Amino acid sequence: MFVAERMTRHPITMNSSATIGEVDRMMKKYKFHRMIIVDGGKLVGYLSDRDVMRVAPSPATSLSKFEIRTLLDKLSVKDIMQTKVITVSESATIEEAALIMYQNKVGGLPVISEVGTVVGIITATDILKTFIEVMGLPSGGKIRMTLEVPNRVGVMAEITKILADKKINIDSIIICHTDEQFSEIVVRLDDRPEGFGGITSELEAHGYKVIHVVKIK
C-alpha cells in the first residue's frame, strides 16, 4: 500500500507573500493545524497554528479582535514560516510515512512528486484509517485470534497449513515481535458457526499458545 493511494490530493496551499492573518483564517475555516506554503509550484515551508500563536498578542491583551486581525495582516508568512519541511514521496509505502511521522513527531507530511511538486498531504489520521481497514474493523463479521509463537523458521507455514486443512480462510496476518524468543501473531479469520474450539486445541498442540480470540463486531 502506497502513500499515493492514501493521501489527500490537491491540498490547500498558500504562498509565502500571504499575511499571517490570511493563513490563520484559512486554517480556522478548514480546521487545519498547519498550512503548506508553496511558491511557483515548489514547496518552500509551512506554517503551523503554534507559529501563529507565537506572534499573536496574548489572550490577556486589551486589543480588540479587529486590532489583532489588523496586526496579523501586517505580518508576512515568509517572516515566520518553518523552512525545514519533512516530506515523503508519493511512491513511498504507508509504513515509511508512518515511520517518518513517528521518528520526527509530526502529525502530517506534504507528499512530493518525482519532479518536486506538492501533490498531496498524508496525516496520522490517514495512517490510522489504513490500519483500521487492514484489520477489517469497519466490515466486522471476522474472528481476531492472537497467538504467541516462537521465533523460528517455518512458523507461518505451519500455522497457515493448520488453518487451511480446516478450510478456514485467512483475511490478514500481522506479526508483532515481543522479544528475541517470541512473537505475537494476530490472525483475522472468517467466522464459522461451529466456533474455533477445535482449532485452538490443535494450534496449542503444535506449541502455539492462543492468548486471545474475539469476534470483530
Can you describe this structure?
With 217 residues, this protein is α+β, with helices and mostly antiparallel strands. The protein has two domains: 3-131, CBS-domain, CATH 3.10.580; 142-216, VC0802-like. The chain has helices spanning 3-6, 20-30, 49-55, 65-72, 77-80, 94-104, 124-134, 155-165, 197-205, and strands spanning 8-9, 13-14, 34-39, 42-48, 88-89, 108-112, 118-123, 142-150, 170-177, 182-190, 209-216. Strands 1-7-6-5 form a four-stranded mixed sheet. The model has no long low-confidence stretch (mean pLDDT 88).
Q: Give the number of DSSP strands.
A: 11
How are the strands of the largest sheet arranged? 1-7-6-5
Global mean pLDDT = 88
Terminal Cα separation, in Å? Answer: 25 Å
User: What is the CATH homologous superfamily assignment of the largest domain?
Assistant: CBS-domain
Unreliable spans are none
DSSP summary: helix tally: 9
CATH level-two architecture of the largest domain:
Roll
Radius of gyration: 25 Å
What is the makeup of the main sheet?
A: 4 strands, mixed
Structural class by sheet pairing and helices: alpha+beta
The H-and-E topology, N to C, reads as HEEHEEHHHEHEEHEHEEHE
Overview features:
CBS-domain; four-stranded mixed sheet; alpha+beta; VC0802-like
List the helices and strands and how they pair.
Blueprint: H1 3-6, E1 8-9, E2 13-14, H2 20-30, E3 34-39, E4 42-48, H3 49-55, H4 65-72, H5 77-80, E5 88-89, H6 94-104, E6 108-112, E7 118-123, H7 124-134, E8 142-150, H8 155-165, E9 170-177, E10 182-190, H9 197-205, E11 209-216
Parallel strand pairs: 2-3, 5-6
Antiparallel strand pairs: 1-7, 3-4, 6-7, 8-10, 8-11, 9-10
